[in-house]
Structure formats: C-alpha cells, structure tokens
C-alpha cells in the first residue's frame, strides 16, 4: 500500500511539476542575462552615469534624450549613415537572393556544391571577413581598385568618401547574407506547384513574366520574413564599420564620421567615453528606430501583388 | 547576433506529379552554370585570397598586379602570428567558450523543446509564445546593463562573461520543439508511460536518441555562431585575454602595417569553422532550408 502511494505521489509530481523544471533553465538564464539588461537599459538611459565621473549616478530624467535628439549632430549623422546602409544592404540582398534562388532552382548537377557555395560567406567570421575586405578595398594596393583600374576607373579612396565607404561596407554585408536569404527562398520555390507554370506557359507567359507574376507573389511570406530579419541586423551594423578602419580612432567610423553607424556611436559613447547613461539612450532610440523601419519594410513587402 | 522569427511555412507542393515537376524545374543551361560558377567564385574569393596572402612573403600584398596563387610561406607566417600575439590563448578561449555554449544550448534546448512539444502543463502555450516572442528581441541593445552586471559579479575581462549569456537561446528551444512535434509519435511516449517511465526517463531513453539529427544541426549552428561572435566579447574582454575574434581586431588595430600577419591570423581564425562547414555543409544547408536560422 505504502509503495503504491509513493509511486502515485511521484507520478503526480512528475506530471505536475517536472515540465516546469525542464523549461526553467531557459527562462531563468534568458530572464537574467537577456531580458533584464534590456529593460534596465531604459532605466539607465534616464540617469547621468559616467564611469569617469566620481559623483556616481543620479536621475536626470529625459536630459540624455533631449541632448541626443536636439543637440547632437554626431547622433543624427550616425542615424543617417545607419539608414543609408540599411537601404544599400537590404534591397540588394533581397533582390540578389531572389535571382540566385531562381538559378539554384533549375535542375543543376553538383547542386550541393553550389548550395554550400552560396552559404559559405554566412559562416565565416565577421571580424575576419571585414579585415579581408578592408584590404580588398585598399586605396593603393587593393584588388578592387586594381580591377577598376583595368577599366580605366582610376584609384578610389574607398574609406574617405561617404558614398564610397557606404558602398564598401554594404558590399561586405550583402556578400555575407545574400546566400542565406537565397536558400530560404529556394526552399519555398521548390514547393510551388508546377501546374501553375504550365498554365502560364500555355497562356504565353515568358520566363521573366512567370518569375514576377507567379514566383515572387508566392514567395511573399518569405520575402516579408527576410526583409524583417535583414532589417533588424542591418540597422545595428557595428563590426563592419569598426573594423573597416581599425586603429585608435576606430569607433568614430572614419575621420569625418562618414561611416559611423548608430550602433558604433553607442559603442563609442559607452566604451570609449564610458558614458553609460547617454549610451543607453542611444540604444533605446535605435531600438525604436529599428521597429519603425522594420514596420515600413513590412508595409512595403506586404504590397507584393498576389492577384 | 541572434534574431529569429517564426519561420514561414513553405507553400505546400501540389502532390506527386512527376512529369509536371520536371517541367517546372527546368534543366540548367550553360548560362545558368556560368552564373552559378560566378556566384560560387564570388563567395569563395575573399577567403581564398586571404589564404593566398597568408602563404606569401610580406611584400607580396603590395605588388601590382596582385598575387592570386598561393606561395610556400604559410607556416612561416603562422609562426609569426603566434610570436607576435598570444594567439594560442585566443584559440584556447574560443574553443572553451564555443564548446561550453554548444553543449549547454543543445542540452537545455532539447529539454525545454521536449517539454513544450510532448508534455502537458498549465501555461504551456503562453510560455511558448514568450519563447517565440523573445527570438525577435535584440538583446545586443542591453549591452550596457549586461556589462554593469558582469563588473558587479567580477566577471568582466574573464571568459565566464562571454559564456554565461550564451548558455540558452530562444531559437534553440523553438527549433527543438518543432522537431519533437514532428519526430516523436505520442503513442511511443504513452507506451513508455505504461511501462512506468517517468518523464525524465522518457526524455533520456526515447526523446534524446530520436532528437540526435536535430540536436546535431543545432549544435553546428551554435558552435559557429559562438565562434564568430564579436561584439560582446569585444566589449567585455580585454586584449590580454581575447577570443580569436577580438584578438583579430586588436591585431588589425595595432600600429603594424604588416597586413600579411593580420590576414594570416584571419585565416587561422576562419579554419575551424571552415572545417566544420566542409564536413557538415550538407546538414547546414538542410538546416537553413528547413527552418530559418539567423546567425
């Protein structure tokens, strides 16, 4: 009798409480090291908190935000660069990925080789790759200038200009992420029923028309997904601008801050000026800006026609 | 960077119509191959070129026209990297960090994924929604308070500070939950329960063996992500105690103009993930195509 009782109690414990124990590690660790710091950022952003000041932290309410939004040209410069890089990375990334997925969707020999090939950039380390690209984009001996020279384009000082530095950084990001999105699109392309294309062919639709009228509309959910994912990543580029011009002043993103992103400005304020309050305010504004831009991306991609 | 949303379900295929499928997926012509080969070359070139420079003498990087074939000085340059910086420490740190995080993420994700997919408990769906919702949260933006916490704990500059925040991921939990949902029939677990197995034994003897393929894919992704992680280690570690990625940035930021040295270090830092990739590339491609993974 006692044995049965104990077994029953054990069973009740097992069905009632054990599941919580299994999911608890995730919630505990994420809560402490993920969610709490994020929420606490809002709190810190309302404080004067600079590690270099000896007077400690005290509340100044919205002064950081006031300074940031109304009296800090560096911040608006960084936001401008962030938006410019967002455009230069996100749109080419999605369009190129659609094209590459279309190529991979043909019947290809050695298809695993090609699929692995497109995803290779995505698995390499962002630090290593940025250092490599910084050399390829070098002014005097860079390979890219050498190729351009063959076509008579002359030497470009990629880091010096705003537009040229943005193009160089965008190239690194697009190189890294296009293949990933291409595989997502490919997976869905392969599931499009062939009968749709057959019917279109009978109606006289050419390959190009079929691509825009059938393939792209049917991929709409994946295009929305990729746009949002790409936006959240591209709105906080940090490693690329930081390592494009490594050195003592790396966190300013170029001599005129021509490629300093908002995330890099956050890093500069937080970890070279040690102004934690101000840096937190940048984090909060950047998070809000990311939500707005991702929302815009959603609204645009949602309009893809589905007939 | 870990931001993953609920992956969209692919459009359903219209059934097994062999002829029609063949028609739809046109056979690739020479132009398709030419374009694909161009894409492949573009993908591989930067890494290849870094390898080429690493195997040349230091003056080769400044020659016109540029050198495009490997030379015979790779090991010489590798030795110079290890002489210049404590790259052995960086490699050791990276291996410890990435392995610990991988084991932990796979274990905790499998456990939680199993509970979410196969056990019934109050609040299960609500908690699962929380997991899915937290995937989209940019935890990177909480970097300031996280740094303050690590200083408070006395962990700043130590590799604990890099390991602990990486021990669980929302993506991992969701990924394993999706796998269990499909891979293990409820009847199998019922049978186990009839035999008097508790949930932990069911997990250990039924669920875990069945989850091996998914756990392997999750492990691969986690390892590569942890290995490549840059921002947080840069913030919380110091140049005297680096991971491979932060050692690279220190080396690149130094006053050396010896870029052959820097690119050799970049090559060494890339080799471990490259090996993982060459061995398990097929599984990685399959993992990305079956769900959405964002590094």
Can you walk me through this structure?
The complex is a heterodimer of chains A (about 300) and B (about 300). Chain A is mainly alpha-helical and about 300 residues long. Chain A has a single domain, classed as Orthogonal Bundle (MetI-like fold). Chain A has 14 helices and 2 strands, in the order ααββαααααααααααα. Chain A has a two-stranded antiparallel sheet. Chain A is globular, with a radius of gyration of 25 Å. Chain B is mainly alpha-helical. Chain B has a domain at about 85-290: MetI-like (MetI-like fold). Helix content of chain B is about 70%, strand content about 0%. Chain B is built from 14 helices and no strands. Chain B has helices at about 20-25, 30-55, 75-85, 85-120, 125-135, 145-155, 160-165, 170-185, 185-195, 200-210, 210-230, 230-235, 245-255, 260-290. In chain B, helix 11 (about 210-230) runs antiparallel to helix 14 (about 260-290) and helix 13 (about 245-255) runs antiparallel to helix 14 (about 260-290). The radius of gyration of chain B is 23 Å and the shape is globular. The chains are: A mainly alpha (about 300), B mainly alpha (about 300). The interface between A and B is large, with 109 and 118 residues. Chain B: Keywords: Cell membrane, Membrane, Transmembrane, Transmembrane helix, Transport. Chain B: This is Binding-protein-dependent transport systems inner membrane component. Chain B: It comes from Kibdelosporangium persicum.
Task: Name its key features.
heterodimer; A: 307 residues; mainly alpha; MetI-like fold; 14 helices; B: 295 residues; globular; membrane (chain A); Binding-protein-dependent transport systems inner membrane component (chain A); transport (chain A)
